[in-house]
Amino acid sequence: MQYLGHLGRNDPLYGYFCTDILPQIGNFGQEPDFRVFRFAGNREVYLYSDQVIGVKLVGKFFKMPDPDHARYAGQTEFNNLLFLRRIGLADPPCRVVRPYGFNPDVDHVLVTEYVQAESFGSVIESAIHRGKTDRFYRKLSALAAFMAYFHHRTVGDWPVDFDRVCAYFDGLIHTLQAGGFIGSDTASDFRYVKELWRNQAFMWEDRSVLVHGDPTPSNLLIGHGADVTAIDLERMRWADRAFDLGRLCGEIKHFFFRSTNDPMNAEPFIGHFLWEYARYFPDQQAAFRSITRRFPFYLGITFLRIARNDWVSSGYRKRLIQQAATILRAIA
């Protein structure tokens, strides 16, 4: 984290903390003095750490060109967190971060508790570079339990709408083509393969669940034992449970691909995670078979999602797109 200085007492955010946030935590009777830190890799997420009363808060600012969009995004995440905590995700080992408030009048800031934990990305890096694979397996089991609990608590009575995911896929292809990262022939090939997946009955067979929507390693905090805390719930939506599983496993493969030049090095860990997830169904083997039939599509689109980022080098982007094509063509 980068230290930025102290939060001024004349800052509207300081007043919001004192009048709306701190009373939810306790009656302190002293004026806080917040030091401000910016989280690495998050330009608009800050830690506010007070040394007088010992409170730490996280402020996430929704700074967007359209203020109505910013208000909607911030209020949506605040409501999502409240809802999930109400239905059982408020306490360890499976929980989401506690929200204290959303204020559109103070730069559209969402204020949450600060959780002292390790990002899942750090756990992956330790497995790759420091050989801590046993711990990685244990934490994958904890994540599987978290994901299963999250999904099982929110199962709907209606089937998956795979057309919505196909529209998302089309958007990724459009972005890659508009950026000059793929040509028209490659784009057409991807759309053809997408239709092959669309025509598979099993892609529509499961019931919809609420998915996290963006379960990247930075959005999953790993605590002691089996404790997992999720953050960044603004993209929560109704979808196939395999959406979350494919996104998370695609990120794991990306870490291994980037560090070892071979995404297949992630396979033992991904297999373990999916088998552990299936353990929370009445028939583990049947659940595993069902999930792993649908899983490659969501894994492939995760590679395409990563490839569209500006920070990805041209050489690595090409390999990501090639890997996505290989994964998605497995249906042919």
UniProtKB/TrEMBL annotation:
Record carries keyword Ribosomal protein: no
GO molecular function: transferase activity
Keywords per UniProt: Transferase
Keyword Heme applies: no
A UniProt-annotated Pfam family: APH
Residue ranges of every copy of the Aminoglycoside phosphotransferase domain listed in the record: 61-279
InterPro entries in alphabetical order: Aminoglycoside_PTrfase, Kinase-like_dom_sf
Protein name: Aminoglycoside phosphotransferase family protein
